[in-house]
């Protein structure tokens, strides 16, 4: 009973900070995306492909979340966008307070879209709001088609699911129909995009969808 109360208090405190973040984002007219996935699904590769397209219309900023190191932030910085690294030091997610602490290091008046690349994990990031407009989760075909049923909360809270690495479908055992049907059973409103960051297939469909949301 005590453990449940502690968890509730942590989530309540996080939600209060997320609301503060949301107010600031609204004041600055910044659209915020929380990008989540398991490790190795391809979040950074996805951003390396999509940010140049988004920059044609919008000013983009990025918060990179990792347990340690700055490799992903260094990759994103090559796109000439402002980027801040959050190292969680072992925590399996980015929370509202981490985002709040990172914001002073970003030129918020020069950003239209802020993308937060969360720590690779299919459990914890789904539980912590950061003040975002959209939660987008990525599932790579190399992970298996059973993930929606194993990690339903992630699929339930997300606005969109990106199925990545479809160029590998001929070489692996992944049931696309099952993965999509299971995800939609959990969340009927989930928008789904099949993409390959290697070939570029499907990326324009996602970007056009995102433009409609901003």
Please give a structural write-up.
- With 214 residues, the protein is an alpha/beta fold.
- The protein has one domain (2-213): Rossmann fold (3-Layer(aba) Sandwich).
- The chain has helices at residues 2-28, 43-54, 71-77, 96-102, 147-150, 152-157, 176-186, 203-213; strands at 31-37, 60-66, 83-87, 113-117, 134-140, 160-164, 191-194.
- Strands 3-2-4-1-5-6-7 form a seven-stranded parallel β-sheet, sandwiched between helices.
- Helix 3 links the parallel strand 2 (60-66) and strand 3 (83-87).
- The longest helix has 27 residues, at 2-28.
- It starts with a helix and ends with a helix.
- 40% of the residues are buried.
- The model has no long low-confidence stretch (mean pLDDT 91).
Describe the secondary-structure layout:
Layout: H1 2-28, E1 31-37, H2 43-54, E2 60-66, H3 71-77, E3 83-87, H4 96-102, E4 113-117, E5 134-140, H5 147-150, H6 152-157, E6 160-164, H7 176-186, E7 191-194, H8 203-213
Parallel strand pairs: 1-4, 1-5, 2-3, 2-4, 5-6, 6-7
Helix pairs in contact: 1-4
Search tags:
7-stranded parallel β-sheet, globular, Rossmann fold, 40% helix, 214 residues
Annotated CATH architecture: 3-Layer(aba) Sandwich
SSE succession? HEHEHEHEEHHEHEH
- Say what the CATH topology is: Rossmann fold
> Could you name the CATH class?
Alpha Beta
Number of helices: 8
Describe the structure concisely:
This protein is α/β, with parallel strands linked by helices and 214 residues long.
């Amino acid at each position: 009973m005590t453990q449940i109360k502690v968890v509730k208090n942590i989530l309540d405190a996080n939600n209060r900070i997320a609301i503060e973040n949301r107010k600031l984002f609204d004041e600055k007219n910044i659209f915020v995306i929380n990008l989540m996935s398991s490790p190795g699904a391809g979040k950074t590769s996805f951003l390396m492909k999509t940010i140049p397209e988004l920059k044609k219309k919008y000013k983009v900023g990025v918060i990179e979340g990792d347990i340690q190191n700055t490799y992903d932030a260094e990759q994103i910085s090559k796109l000439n966008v402002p980027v801040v690294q959050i190292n969680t030091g072992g925590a399996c997610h980015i929370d509202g307070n981490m985002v709040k602490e990172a914001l002073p290091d970003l030129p918020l008046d020069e950003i239209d879209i802020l993308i937060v690349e969360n720590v690779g994990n299919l459990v914890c990031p789904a539980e912590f709001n950061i003040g975002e407009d959209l939660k987008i989760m990525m599932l790579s075909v190399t992970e298996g088609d059973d993930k929606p049923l194993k990690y339903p909360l992630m699929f339930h809270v997300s606005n969109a699911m990106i199925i990545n690495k479809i160029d590998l479908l001929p070489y692996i055992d992944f049931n696309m129909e099952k993965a999509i049907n299971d995800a939609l059973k959990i969340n009927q409103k989930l928008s789904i995009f099949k993409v390959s960051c290697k070939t570029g297939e499907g990326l324009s469909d996602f970007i056009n969808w995102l433009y409609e949301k901003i």
